[in-house]
Amino acid sequence: MSDDTDSDTELEENYYTFLNLPKDATAEQINAAYRKLSRVYHPDKHMDGENKHKAEMLFNRTKKAYEVLSDPQKRAIYDSVGEKGLRTDGWELIHRTKTPAEIREEYQRLAQAAEERKLLQSTNPRGNVTISVNATEVFSPYDDREVPHVEVSSMSISQSIEAPITRRDTVIMSGNLVSTNGNGSGGFVVCGRRLLNKGWLELDIGAGGRTLSPVLSVTGGTSLNFREHGVIPALFSSLSVQLDKHTIGSLTLNASSQSAMTTQIDRSNDKCAWSTSFVIGSPHIYFSIAYTHKMIENELKLKVAAKVGTFGFLAEYGAEKKVSKYSSVLAAVSIGVPTGVILKFKIVRSQQTYVFPIHLSEDIVPASVFYATVTPVIVWFLVKKSIIDPMLADRKNIENDKIKRNNEQRMNLRRQEAAAAIDLMTHTYERIVNEEIERGGIIIANATYGCLEQNGNFRADASIDVKIPLQCLSDLPGFYDPCVGEDKVLRFEYLYNNRPNLRIGFFKLDLFKWSLFHRYSIKFQILCASKVLNLNLILMPGKIEDDRLRKPYKSNATVSGSSNNINEILTISSFTGVSAVNANESLEQENKNITEIALPVCQDPVYEESSPFVPNITLESLDVVEAQLGPLLESGGAFKPKDCNARHHVAIVVPFRDRYAHLSIFLRNMHPFLMKQNITYRIFIIEQTNGQSFNRAALMNIGFLEAMKLYPWDCFIFHDVDLLPLDNRNLYTCPRQPRHMSVAVDEFNYRLPYRTIFGGVSAMTREHFVLVNGFSNSFFGWGAEDDDMSNRLRSANLFIARYPINIARYIMLKHPKEKANPKRYENLVNGMHKIGTDGLNSIKYEIYSNKEYPTFSWYYAELKITEQKS
């Protein structure tokens, strides 16, 4: 029941994978790999006509891969945007060509989606339906009727929408209908809201709020209820204090016909949340406490709560399950005096809520408690097995069929190339087998790769024989994906030391999509998947580099089972063949390497509906900040999770000049904020020399280029040093579209100034940044460079994504206003004509100095660009 959009299903060639090279391969390594494959696949080395044709096909593929990787310019384009970037001349990068019908269909889909988003954002509809069911006769019958009487005792419906009048004024219309025991009532309310400097007012008559400081806020309001015999006034006020980064305390006063004062403390983190409150009022005084345990991997929350006071007591327990991106279900059992036993069901879909409280008994009856507890479990199991699972399976089959249709021609070519490669390896295979027999090494008896049937056998139409490429350790020619989009298995039998018995290695590769096989070799995927079966497995030859640790090491490829017996060690030593090594000497080091690499993939943190981050804006020296944070970081302000492999690798690029006080506050807050997000990141401070006006855009281009020299970051966050986030849910990652991060800044009253803004903090993948040729280098002084980037994104058919305004909140550190560039609007108008010539491909600069400090990487750059004076 996923709500995610479809992904690009086009399979692309991976030249590094075909040549069996790491992404940072040197020119010598590329030449050596090309010569090695050329000796096998050159057509002149095959006399047979059929083999000559097969060799020609593979040699052309080898030659194409070599031509791209040996050309620095083509290689840079390929590394950034993939094979599609090479389908045009030079830097003119375009998307895959589509038919007119596909273009019309895509345009209509995007236009409809944009219209729906616009409608939803402008109206912000909210709804609630509550249906109360009285089923007390089931457990406490009033008479001897055979069929208990179950009735709907009450029903209520409420709905509200917003209607923006101006940028600061909004009209809110809401209505409700209530029917209880045959008596109905309803109401319709029109409210007006106007944005002020630091708060808002609402006419009900109204309510308002004001932020007194980053940790203190107050909300208050009053209302008048006009009745037949008079007017009943009401007053409410609330004071909230941020006690620490996870805890909020509040004091609320409600003066009305039923007055009360409430003291409440809420605490929330990644694993749990709890809340406690004490209420003094009329007619009751009570104390309550609630605890929620979060099971993020299962998208499940377990909740318990208790309340005791002058009214009696109440205990509640339940569970909430997220079934899709926008939908969740909740079931809870409430037991109390005098309420009895109540079973509650709640269904939430986006901003619509449906609640079904079922009153089972007026007293605490053990039978009603038992059935209230087991009924939701049984209902969920039946719904999941009969509706949800078949729906997900059907959706997966449809997606797989679509992938296969889109890549049918390419898959046929892969199949032909794999078959040709295996035929051409036959002589090499026979030679290696003879050598292994003589030395008592490894003989691969059988090896199959593909999808399984339910009985455990391989599907004939979705599996391939890979005995020869596995024996030759040629994991790329000869391997292809026989069942795109489905879980695949590699199973092989082998002989060791000429022993007659066979051992079976069974590796389920369900942790990885085939697209990842284009980034690493198949052997590395088996290595990662080995954690599932608790196998000690390294199956990558030669020099490799851990993508997470960035620590190169030499490793022989080793497979072992659960035993450390030397006779059960499978060793593959190099690309050219298979041989045995002394496992007793290498096993300890290999197991250490496996422990470092074979970690689970990090999951994005999941927070409650509100998870504020409170910046500490007290000024400290950089030395103090480094002493506090340095032990937690690697040199250069780098960080990576210790218990998992990061899903996101993010470079934080900060254009900088003469704001060292802001830099200290920025580093002091950003590192603790980012460490909680399970990402690998590094902060780059790009400082401009004196002599020219500040050029923020050019510095960000420099940051991108210098960061890419250290590591192939998949995500770039371009961040002003004077902005600090206010919500932990604001994840510093890159979605499928460029993301504007700083949506609501206190300087702009926490509102989006205009729709196309892309300044402050923004996130882009490296592919998108290269696609638009980076920022323009023409904007000296303050202003308009971000608007130019917004235009570039639209010209590349990209749109700006944003978090909701209550998540993407920032505060701006105070600073003097920068001098505006009088030519900024002229540059903005002319910018659309210079996308291909003004940006990454035209930046000229010199790095005077760079250094890795404990909390950041510093680059001191001089621009070699002429500033146009007004």
CATH architecture of the largest domain: Beta Barrel
Number of strands: 38
CATH topology of the largest domain: Porin
Chain-averaged pLDDT: 75
The total number of structural domains is: 4
**Top CATH class of the largest domain:** Mainly Beta
Which residues form runs of ≥5 with pLDDT under 50? 1-9, 89-95, 198-208, 500-597
Q: Strand percentage, roughly?
A: 25-35%
Helix content: 25-40%
Which descriptor suits the 3D outline? globular
The DSSP helix count reads 18
Distance between the termini: 58 Å
The biggest sheet amounts to: 17 strands, mixed, barrel
| Helix-strand makeup class | alpha+beta
Radius of gyration: 32 Å
Q: In summary, what is this structure?
A:
It is found in: Membrane. The protein is α+β, with helices and mostly antiparallel strands.
What order do the helices and strands come in, and which of them pair?
Blueprint: H1 15-19, H2 27-41, H3 49-70, H4 72-81, H5 100-123, E1 126-134, E2 151-164, E3 169-180, E4 183-195, E5 199-203, E6 207-213, E7 216-227, E8 230-244, E9 247-255, E10 260-268, E11 272-281, E12 285-295, E13 300-309, E14 312-322, E15 327-337, E16 340-349, E17 352-361, H6 366-406, H7 408-424, H8 426-439, E18 442-452, E19 458-465, H9 467-471, E20 489-496, E21 503-508, H10 514-517, H11 522-533, E22 536-538, E23 543-545, E24 552-554, E25 557-560, E26 569-572, H12 583-597, H13 622-629, E27 638-639, E28 649-656, H14 660-675, E29 680-688, H15 696-710, E30 715-719, E31 723-725, E32 739-740, E33 744-745, E34 761-765, H16 766-771, H17 785-795, E35 801-802, E36 809-812, H18 824-831, E37 845-852, E38 857-863
Parallel strand pairs: 1-17, 28-29, 28-30, 29-38, 32-35, 33-36
Antiparallel strand pairs: 1-2, 2-3, 3-4, 4-5, 5-6, 6-7, 7-8, 8-9, 9-10, 10-11, 11-12, 12-13, 13-14, 14-15, 15-16, 16-17, 18-19, 18-20, 20-21, 22-25, 23-24, 25-26, 27-29, 30-34, 31-36, 32-34, 37-38
Helix pairs in contact: 2-3, 3-4, 3-7, 17-18
